[in-house]
Amino acid sequence: MSEARTISFMLNGEAVSAEILSHHSLVDVLQRQFDLFGARESCGQGMCGCCTVLVDDRAVSGCLFLAAFADGAEVVTVEHLGRDGLSDVQEAFIAAGAFQCGFCTPGFVLMTHQLLDEHPDPDDETIHHYLAGNLCRCAAYPEIVEAVKIAARKRKTGATG
Amino acid sequence: MTTTTMQRGEVGRSLPRLEARDKVSGRAQYMHALQLPRMLTGKIFRSTVAHGRIRSIDTSAARALPGVHAVITAEDVQRIIPEPYYGPAFHDQPILAIDKVHYVGEPVAVVLAADPHVAEEAAQLIVAEYDELPAVFDEVEAATSGVHVHEELKPAGTFPDLKHLKGRKGTNVALDFRLRRGDTEAAFKAAAHVFEHSFRTQQCLHLALEPFVSLADARQDRVTVHTASQSPSFVRIEIARLLGWPENRVRVVVPFLGGGFGGKLYIKLEALVVALSLLTRRPVKIALTMEEQFYTITKHASTFRIKSGIDHDGRIVARECEVWWNGGAYADIGPRVTQKSGFTAAGPYDIDNVAIDSYALYTNLTPAGALRGFGIPQLVWAYESHTDMVARALKLDPLEFRRKNILRDGRPQATGTVLKDAAIEAVLARTAERIDWGKPFDRGAGHVRRGRGLAVALKAVISPTTSVAVVNINADGSTTLYCGTVDMGQGSDTAMAQIVGEVLNLPAEAVRVVPRDTDVTPYDMGTLGSRSLFHMGHAVRLAAEDARAKLKALAGELDVPEGSNIPIAELFKKKYGMQAGNIVGTGTYKPDYVSPDAATGHTPNATPFWMVAGAGAEVEVDTETGHVRITKLVNVADIGRAINPRIVETQLSGGALMQLGFTMFEKMHVDGGQVTNASLADYKIPGLRDVPVVMRNETVDTTQANGPFGAKGVGEVSTFCVSPAIANAIDDAVGVRLTELPLTPEAVFRALRANAGKPLEDA
Question: Which of B25, B647, B688 sits opposite A131 (nearest CB)?
Answer without folding.
Answer: B688
